[in-house]
Design brief:
alpha+beta, Jelly Rolls, 7-stranded antiparallel beta sheet, 4-stranded antiparallel beta sheet, 11 strands, binds 2-oxoglutaric acid, binds fe (ii) ion, vitamin c, Proline hydroxylase, peptidyl-proline dioxygenase activity
Length: about 220
Amino acid sequence: MTTADFEPIIELDAFNTQAIDCAQLATHGYVIVPNFLATEHCRALFDYAVALDPNAWQQAGIGRADQYTTNTAVRQDKIRWLHRECAPEATYLELMDALRVQINRELFMGLFDYECHLAHYPPGAFYRKHLDAFKGRSNRILTSVFYLNPEWDTNDGGELVMYDAQGDVLEKVLPEAGKLVLFLSDVFVHEVLPGQRDRFSITGWYRHNASIGGVIDPTR
Ligand SMILES: O=C(O)CCC(=O)C(=O)O
Ligand SMILES: [Fe+2]
């Protein structure tokens, strides 16, 4: 099945703006939103991800541009960058852009754009402790992780673990369908624990405009 076989699968007004507690994000630097998207929309995205051709996925890497390498000792997921040209992917990008506008309006964060990829962690796959951005060395400001997994149980593992500045566990997040996590990309060290089942999510980053001389900083 190719991506062109799918119609748009979520409505632009589908996401629950009320569910996003911007005050929590401003105060703590992160927020966990249990019901960002309704079950049917999550299910549609999940079915889409599951049905994708294996060739639609690539081994995830670490670092950007010429620093980019795949290192399966660090991360073992497969990813697929979302594209506006692909209808089911475009609607998610539009939703996240609407959220960008909302966050800018409420928190004046000056978020400029957004990039994201689907991620598939097969059983046992992990992503070791890392930061998504290093202070002053990346234009990634705010990370979003949206989970697609129906009926995910504590026994299934695969938690996102977030750490505080002391290295103590701050949050252990089950990757349950409909849940969105937002956190400041250069503040929270986090990891993905191995799970028992295939784990699907959409991870993205809101970015500042780090353009130099009118050339927009390349994505990824
Ligand atoms: O899937 C998750 O819970 C987090 C993924 C992640 O940390 C990343 O892709 O940078
Ligand atoms: Fe990360």
